[in-house]
Amino acid sequence: MTPTVTDDFVNFSSFLVDPCETIQIKRYKSSKTGLTAVHADIEGPLVSGFLALATKVLNDDGCPHTLEHLVFLGSEKYPYKGALDSLAPRAYAPGTNAWTDVDHTCYTITTAGSDGFLQLLPVYVDHILYPTLTDEGFYTEVHHIDQDGQDAGIVVYCEMQARENSMTDIMQRRLQHLMYPKESGYQNEAGGLMENLRTLKIESIRDYHRQFYTPDNLVIVITGKVDQVHLLSSLEQIDKSILDKNHNMTRSSKPWIPAPVIPDLLHDHTEIVYFPGHELEDMCEITVTWLGPHWNAFLEIQAIHMLNAYLSETPIAPLKKVFVERNDPYCTELDFRIQERSRITITACFQNVPLAKADDIVPTFISTLHAMLNSLEIDMDRMAALIRKEKLKFLDEYETRATYMVALPAITACLYGDLGSDDFVDALQQAKYLDVLVDFTKQDWLHLLKKTYIDSAYTALIGKPSLAMSERLIQEENARVEAQRAYLGDEGLQLLAAQLDHANRINEAQIPSRIMEGFPIPDVSSISSIEVLTAINPYCQLLDATTKLPKNPVQAHVSRDESPGDIPFFIQYDDISSAFVSISVYMNTSNMPSHLRPYGRMYMDTIFASPICLDDGSLISHDDVVQKLDLDIISYDASLGYQGAFREYIVVTIKVEAKKYSAGVNWLRYLMWNIQFTHDRLVVAINKTLNDIPQAKRSGKLVTDWTIRAINTDITKSTEASCSYLYQDTFLPKVLDKIRKNSSQIIHDMNEFRSILCRGENLRVHVMGDILRLKQPKSVFRSWKLRQKKVKAIPPVIRSKDAFGLFGRRPGQCTTVVVLPATESSFSIHSAKGPSDFDSPEIPPLLVLMEMLHAMEGVYTRLVRGLGLSYKCWLSNLTESGLISLCILRSSNILGAFEHVKNATHQLATGEMQFDTYALEGAKSSVIFDIADCENTREVAAAQSFINKVLRQSKRQKCQFFKAVQDVTMQDVTKILLKYILPIFDPRASNHVIVTSCAKSQEIAQSLYLMGHPAQVIKVEDVYARDIFQQ
User: Fold this and answer.
1) What is the model's pLDDT at position 402?
2) How far is 495 from 488, CA to CA, in rounded Å?
3) What's the CA gap between 818 and 828, in Å, rounded?
4) N- or C-end of the chain: fewer Cβ atoms within 10 A?
5) Cα 304–chain centre separation
6) Residue 565's pLDDT is what?
7) Cα–Cα distance, 962 to 953 (Å, whole number)
8) What would you give as a GO molecular function for this chain, any one (predicted)?
9) How high is the pLDDT of residue 615?
């Protein structure tokens, strides 16, 4: 490709990436500094930036990761901690973020509209290329010893402390050592090991920055609607700033060009890897990994993707049948993961394996692959269907997550190749290789199976929990800390405390007002939006006399589609430009009898993998159902609610090509009314869930959420609570026992559950897609022959608060400490009453206040994360449930974090501490970003239309909400703080859950008592076992 030169930037020829050829890619490279930029023109209100540098992990000191965090503490031009994240909201951005991988570090930013993005981009680049890297920043953020003699670090050390001995990290580190030679740069831990972090010096990080953070090693990938003239102007401004600082620039060599030689593995290797466990843990994880082709062998990699899909996707895949879809499963999930390096790795991952079966997994897996090869077993019809479906998935992902479809392969291509090469273009046009795979023969697939998995050596790791290891690590850490305290002595600890206090004072220097004032907030009118036109089924007017039909072309089109009989249930249509149609059925569970509610999880787990009875009485096996679904449907799902809200609804969703709309509607009819619940399929579903639960119960965050739900809800009224893993852990073993003795009663209960759930009055259907192109948008639903003669009036929208018990309706006097042996950190959630009307005038000031408190540079974050007390602290406004919650995640001192937040809140309420004007302005901008983010793609915008109109029943328009946010005053947020935030800290008005380790539970409970929060201490198994929260 012949590049052109525009001023100082080489402009390579543009190209299109998506199958519909709507997303154009442009590439720029500075002829003076080597700075590289890639722009993908993607529709939507958001603009995203990925600023990536190729970095190499030279040892286990953690330089790449520590440097990532220190970048945010200020730059030469903006030498103040938090300057970048204080300016970000003024660009309509929620803040910044970053990740560190073994071969690169990437910094990210997303803004609503392009004006703020282009204004913030030079500031971001200044932080990346010219960070301050001060001694004080290193001391607080990376590693120090506190006044108690404990090793700490506000971000880095605490993060690695939580990660280093996790199952995932232990297995990944061991795998890297076994797969790669030391000189490759892939063997070490990018985050650093705690032992190394304790001796790391700032000079090492500065040297690392000089080596890798150079302009010609920086690529900026930008996605969204950005004017090219304005983009080039911003890039030239950055280029000029770089040249001003580097008059005699020398180009650096790219760390991954040429790519390191990764030799083939010489022999198969299986090894047991232990991770800290507890006495109740009886599940493990197993991985089998191969080296694959080089990163730019795009056709072969896509072929491996499809072979993996054939082997493991859907319940009828060969490996799923052997390992998962059986009465006595080897594991609950089996999938393949491809990791992109200079040579890819392919890993088969077996999750939640019973310890008794651990030693059988690898030999059974390898023998199954050999048997497939020897018997020449490749179902070419199924493979053709999978390839066709994968092509449609590519198209769908360019509609729903185009930013990542472009950014991630672009980063990889820049790490290992050249911006102007054919490899770069090919990396972003991988859908085209599926057209080649259509012509693969059975012999081609068998050859690939043989080459990739049979002839190549593998490394297998069996990750097993070890109580002895857990106890040993605790003993070793306690002994090390005691020895450290003894060595330092009281005087040494006091000196370290003074040193930390000094570093904190330096780091917390106030950002001058001139910096904030020099960064004007763009006009909100610069944020684009996606138009969605709505229509509803006219029959809704008979079900609800207050219903009014919209006046637009979509409604006219739907109304013209007459049918001989009425369609007697609610349907909303949202018209967007799309090649697909999504149909979601929201099923109200408010009238479900309490003894049937817990069957909701079994229903969702079996609806797409059970036999179906056709209208003529013939039966389709569950294998055939799955295979036929793959022919007609792009994706399908059954879940509770939408994105964490309205979880008293069971939602069944399918997505089809627009031309298969009628088939999709018919499939939903069969799935909702005609599936046959059988003994075998129910046992498979139950065993899978029971084997999933132990791993889920290792998550402190999940256990915290489940417990507060148990406190707030009446289990007899809440489908969400009765379907939670903690309740299912007590419910499913009883069901399994009954079904093994006599399955007829359980099958009867499942049929009764289904018949109540699928009554016409319980259904709210949402159809989104290009409605105007559907010939029969309404009349196709005639096939849904409801079982009752007459549909009743539509019941009111059910919300979480409708299923509350006493503690949920009137929070207060309920504090619970849950003992979780699997965690070393602590987690908490503290809930009080909040607004419950989505159109309440209190919502805009509440959202603004929350941003002022928990944003990256907000009061809570600076206190809790800034002092190293917790990894994250935030407020959650749950309008649907009428609650507002304070959440603290991964804390080393949970009550210290809570007390600091409490004291700060009281100081704000009394005026002892005050917000500044810039915090208010920035918070408003962050709220506006959040609104834009809720409608960032056409599909999400259409889904939001249904949520707002039907479930939230909100009448407020987006422009009205924008204005309400912009009109919020300091007096408004103060009133909200007094009314809704202060009660969170009042034990008489709030409920509290703390999840912590065995070692800390009693100490925390005693401290809570002294704070006025008498607490009960329970095991995680007892949350539902004793009905302790039900009154």
Assistant:
1) 94
2) 9
3) 10
4) C
5) 26
6) 65
7) 18
8) metallopeptidase activity
9) 86
CB 515 within 8 A of CB 87: yes
Give the Å distances, CA to CA, from 740 to 159, 327, 610, 686, 693. 46, 11, 18, 12, 21
Listing from the earlier edge strand, what are the strands of the sheet with 814-819? 870-878, 883-891, 826-833, 990-996, 814-819, 1015-1019
β-strand 283-294 against 459-466: which pairing, if any? antiparallel
Name the residue among 759, 777, 776, 760 with its Cα closest to residue 768. Answer: 777
- What spatial distance separates the first Cα and last Cα of the chain, rounded to whole Å? 73
Contact yes or no for 293/451 (Cβ under 8 A): no
Crossing angle of the two packed helices 725-741 and 679-696, in degrees rounded to 10? 150
Q: Is 125 exposed, middle or buried (0-12, 13-18, 19+ CB in 10 A)?
A: buried
**The two three-digit tokens of residue 353, written as one number:** 């394996």
- The position carrying tokens 């002994």 is 479
Cα-Cα-Cα-Cα dihedral of 175, 176, 181, 187, to 10°? -150
Identify residue 628 by its one-letter amino acid code. Answer: K
Burial 42-81 (b: 16+ CB within 10 A, else e): bbbbbbbbbbbbbbbbeebbbbbbbbbbbbbbbbeebebb
pLDDT digits (tens, 9 = 90+) for 687-709: 999 999 988 888 889 999 999 99
Q: Which helix (H) or strand (E) holds 433?
A: helix 433-437
Say how far apart CA 361 and CA 174 lie, in whole Å.
19
DSSP 8-state symbol, 182:
G
75 in Cβ contact with 131 (< 8 Å): yes
CB count in 10 Å sphere of residue 110: 25
| C-alpha–C-alpha distance, residues 1031 and 1028, integer Å | 8
For 263, the 3-state DSSP assignment is coil
The identity of residue 162, as a single letter, is A
CA 601 – CA 611 distance, rounded (Å): 18
Q: Which residue has the tokens 């200079």?
A: 342
Higher pLDDT, 603 or 151: 603
Burial of 424 per CB tally in 10 Å (0-12, 13-18, 19+): buried
The per-residue pLDDT for range 379-416, each reduced to its tens digit, is 999 999 999 999 999 999 999 999 999 999 999 999 99
Q: Is residue 948 a contact partner of residue 958, using CB atoms and an 8 Å limit? A: no
Written as six digits, the tokens of 567 are: 């369609």
CA 654 to chain centre: 21
Q: Which has the closest alpha carbon to 794: 1030, 566, 587?
A: 587
Cβ neighbours around 137 below 10 Å, total = 24
pLDDT digits (tens, 9 = 90+) for 735-761: 999 998 888 999 999 999 999 999 988
Residue 413: both structure tokens together: 């291509």
- Strands, E assignment, 240-384: 269-276, 283-294, 333-339, 343-354
- Asked whether the beta carbons of 830 and 885 are under 8 A apart, the reply is yes
Given a contact cutoff of 8 angstroms between Cβ atoms, the answer to whether 750 and 681 are in contact is no
- CB neighbour list of residue 426: distance below 8 Å, 6 or more residues apart: 296, 298
Mean pLDDT for all residues in the chain? 91
Residue appearing with tokens 């491996």: 304
Q: Work out the number of other CB atoms within 10 angstroms of the CB of residue 253.
A: 10
Q: Could you tell me the domains of the chain? A: 23-255+495-517 (3.30.830.10), 269-401+419-464 (3.30.830.10), 533-784 (3.30.830.10), 805-1025 (3.30.830.10)
What does the block give as tokens for 193?
A: 């090991």
Is 419 within 8 Å of 29 (Cβ atoms)?
yes
Residue 548, pLDDT > 50, answer yes
Give the long-range contacts of residues 226-234, CB within 8 A, separation 24 or more: 226/39, 226/41, 226/47, 226/114, 226/117, 226/118, 227/114, 228/26, 228/39, 230/114, 230/118, 231/37, 231/39, 231/118, 232/6, 232/7, 232/9, 232/28, 233/118, 234/118, 234/121, 234/122
**Residue position matching structure tokens 């993607």:** 42
